[in-house]
Amino acid sequence: MTIRVGLGYDIHPFADDADRALVLAGVHIGGHVGLAGHSDADAVAHATCDALLGAAGHPDLGTLYPASEGRWKNARSMDMLADVVERIRGDGWSIGNLDIVVNAEVPRLAPHLDAMRANLEAVLGAGTTNVKPKRGEGIGSIGRGEGIQVFAVALLER
Ligand SMILES: [Zn+2]
After folding, report:
1. Is it true that domain 3-157 has CATH number 3.90.25.10?
2. What pTM was computed for the model?
3. Which of 20, 60, 75, 152 could form a disulfide with 34 if both were Cys (CB 3.0 to 4.6 A apart)?
């Protein structure tokens, strides 16, 4: 059996538009302004896609799904993740596990972790996914609450 690891990373600033929804792993987190960026700026979905694509030896998310391309322009990022999973399964890979760190000073993510994991596992498979919240501890842009940063590692098996 061949195993491969991939690392995904993403960062988005909070939007200036107070009406922008905050969406992480497809979960709408109320009570806080959303992230700026293309599509729904779902940084968890984006980092997860890049971890899987990296492990499978594909180009990154921005290359495969350019924001300029009509089909993905206003797409839900979780739909992109489903497309990525279909792509790598088509290559014969099965998903071992994913470990995801969400670095955010605000909002508090603990109440949303179960829903985030459930959404991810609906695409990636039951029992594959761990989501861990971290804080910036006042250091740097994340510590000042200017945005959200996500790291993801994925293990694939074939
Ligand atoms: Zn992103």
Report:
1. no
2. 0.96
3. 20
